Amino acid sequence: MATAPTVTLGIDVLTIDDVVAVARHGAAVAVSPEALSRVAATRALVEQLADDPEPHYGISTGFGALATTFIAPERRRQLQASLIRSHAAGTGAEVETEVVRALQLLRLQTLASGHTGVRPVVVETYAVMLNAGISPIVREYGSLGCSGDLAPLAHVALAAMGEGSVRTRDGEEVDAGDALAAAGIAPLVLEEKEGLALINGTDGMLGMLALAIHDLDALLLTADATAAISVESQLGTDAVFAADLMALRPQVGQADSAANLRALLAGSPIVASHRDPAVCTRVQDAYSLRCSPQVHGAARDTVDHARMIAARELASTVDNPVITLDGRVESNGNFHGAPVAYVLDFLAIAVADVASIAERRTDRALDRTRSQGLPPFLADEVGVDSGLMIAQYAAAGIVSELKRLAVPASVDSIPSSAMQEDHVSMGWSAARKLRRGIDGLARVLAIELVTGCRALDLRAPLSPAPGTAAVRDLVRTVAEGPGPDRFVSPEIEAVTGLVLSGSVARTVKEWIS
């Protein structure tokens, strides 16, 4: 794979592709000289305010419910270090490295904005840590999605101070101080305002949203392919996907999905074999076949709404207090994660429903009373072989979990910080469950692929469309065709790998472009 280009901060707004490049593919980052100049200018203002006998929140006061407590100058370094150590209170399983890198990148972007009041050395330290592949160990629980993703961000800041544990580029767990020393990075000694600036952001939930949008773009293309294969192999009709019928209901995502289905099914001998009403007497296909563009399209539109929210957040500076363009230090509520939390929950609903309709298409293929002549469970020797019977059980179990994961996190709120922070977004929790949901969707689609491709092969000597055949041929590189019962799990895992890697989506793109 070609090396991802360097992502430069401080000039253009970050994109979802930038986040994926740095978080998942290890792209390097750089901070523009213009950004460092802005950072230095606002830092000078903070240092002036630090000498002011009047208290300024985050600069010469405590935090949260202790915001009215004045801190003497000689205690402020201790204040900043204590803030980070006390807030690094995460617990539970480790968060994935790609999420941590996204978290680091997005906090770095805010620091480079010049609105947080940190010194240039803080910005530069975060950049070189990313480039050195130093990923602080962040735990599953600790963020309520308000006042920022406090605990996750605090673990990152703690590592920049040379404390706590990190993962190296090769995945080894080491002491943060040792990792910094090996990379030639001096541990940060935080000054006024800096501890607060390092933890007050929605970076974790936003990073997971960006990764989810990227993954769902590929998964929805894959879903169109699995639907096309199911329609074709179950002797469904493509007439319902006609462009003029879609135009009667001008939903953008629906039209895109239907166009993909038409392209994938174009030239199908299987579809042509029953197009004559004298041959096929069915009036309508079942909803799971006929309404695939409506469901997949609604999911696409939901992803596009989430993309809009993500773009706005990627253009944002989230900190409290912030340094304004005219030099004021102002408290604000921009750290509240509601905008991000809502769309994370919305996506979880779409994920569950796309998986649900895919599982129903799979089940139809295995039921001899509904599959239009296919053997029960697509078994080789009916009675002796069980075919893909239990593969559908696996899909059904995943879909059941996805429905539970679709329950929104953002409607919950538990007050914290002695009722100062009395309404929170739970956006981090929404993001965590969405990640599990996306993995589940990929597995359900993989099971539909395994099932649909076997069903296509069982329609021989009739051939599938060139588009669906290309997807089937890709699947056949890791999973065998029809035959006696064999160990099914490795094939499902291998096809899931094709789905998650984007290989299926790339094949689809070749036929819809």
Automatic annotation (TrEMBL):
Keywords: Histidine metabolism, Lyase. The keyword Lyase applies. It catalyses: L-histidine = trans-urocanate + NH4(+). Its main location: cytoplasm. PROSITE patterns: PAL_HISTIDASE (PS00488). Pathway: Amino-acid degradation; L-histidine degradation into L-glutamate; N-formimidoyl-L-glutamate from L-histidine: step 1/3. It is an enzyme of class 4 (lyase). Its EC number is 4.3.1.3. The keyword Lipid biosynthesis does not apply. One of its GO terms (biological process) is L-histidine catabolic process. GO terms for molecular function: histidine ammonia-lyase activity. GO terms for cellular component: cytoplasm. Pfam families: Lyase_aromatic. Belongs to the PAL/histidase family. NCBIfam families: hutH (TIGR01225), PRK09367.1 (NF006871). This is Histidine ammonia-lyase.
